[in-house]
Amino acid sequence: MSGDHVTVAREGRLTIVTMNRPASHNALNAEAHEELAAAFDAFAADPDQWVAIITGAGEKAFCAGHDLKQQASGGGMATPPSGFAGLTSRFDLAKPVIAAVNGVAMGGGFEIVLACDIVVARAGASFALPEPRVGLAALAGGLQRLPRNIGLKHAMGMMLTGRRVSAEEGLQLGFVNEVVDGDVLGAARRWAEDILACSPMAIRATKEAVLRGLDESTNTFLEHQWALPAMAAMLKSQDAVEGPAAFAEKRTPAWSGR
């Protein structure tokens, strides 16, 4: 399901979504946002797709954020209900998403990264929320997610100056999981393979519980977590039987995702 600005490839249980506007540093216009929203709608709805990777086309940019040329010409800054790139406000997506950052991730591009669960960056990639430098603010979740990822003072140091952070500094700060010298998409695939070795039901329950639990005290959430949709689905799933059986029989589990 590819479009003019986005390509989608499926490799077994893995969906790879590529922002494909390299001449514009993969900055997103209205059409690109809608195509990305549709791609993630399809990923979320497909029971056979368990993990997604999002990356950018070309060698220079992951995503340079909003297409400011569109905004300057009166095109506005509207995004789909599911947020920037159809991802940053998609709070009900329990399936994991990996960012393969192949170049600059600026503004909304960095907010896409912060909305992902695992971040792999190529050496030479850089990150920033430079919106104040053009009279704007990071309104696609960056103002909320960055402090949670790296702490208030580090986040303020980035957000109030708009300064760029290298992939290596991102690793030190904690919003990057791995920096690679070469094939960043290959590294992201490796992370995906490790996730796919686990039960997708358990992965979804884990992601949902972790993200929901950020807003509650531990003692309160320990009671609430049993009622979460992905947790309830995991506990009554075939995978919850298959996992212990495979362990007892000393074999590789055959996950069904059901």
Q: What is the fold's blueprint, element by element?
A:
Layout: E1 6-11, E2 14-19, H1 30-45, E3 51-56, E4 61-63, H2 68-72, E5 97-101, E6 104-106, H3 108-115, E7 118-122, E8 126-128, H4 142-150, H5 152-159, E9 165-166, H6 167-173, E10 178-180, H7 184-196, H8 200-213, H9 218-224, H10 229-235, H11 239-248
Parallel strand pairs: 2-3, 3-5, 4-6, 5-7, 6-8, 7-10
Antiparallel strand pairs: 1-2, 8-9
Characterization of the model:
With 258 residues, the chain is of the alpha/beta class. It is built from eleven helices and ten strands. Helix 4 (142-150) crosses helix 5 (152-159). The mean pLDDT is 94.
Short description:
The protein is α/β, with parallel strands linked by helices. The chain is 40% helix and 16% strand. It has two domains: 6-196, 2-enoyl-CoA Hydratase, Chain A, domain 1, CATH 3.90.226.10; 200-248.
| Pattern of helices and strands | EEHEEHEEHEEHHEHEHHHHH
Residue runs with pLDDT of under 50 for 5 or more positions:
none
Tell me the CATH topology of the largest domain. Answer: 2-enoyl-CoA Hydratase, Chain A, domain 1
The strand line-up of the biggest sheet is 1-2-3-5-7-10
CATH architecture of the largest domain: Alpha-Beta Complex
How much of the sequence lies in strands comes to 15-25%
Q: Give the overall average pLDDT.
A: 94
Q: Tell me the total number of β-strands.
A: 10
What summary fits the major beta sheet? 6 strands, mixed
> Could you say which overall geometry the principal axes of the C-alpha atoms support?
globular
DSSP helix count? 11
Q: What structural category arises from helix and sheet content?
A: alpha/beta
Q: How much helicity do the residues have?
A: 40-55%
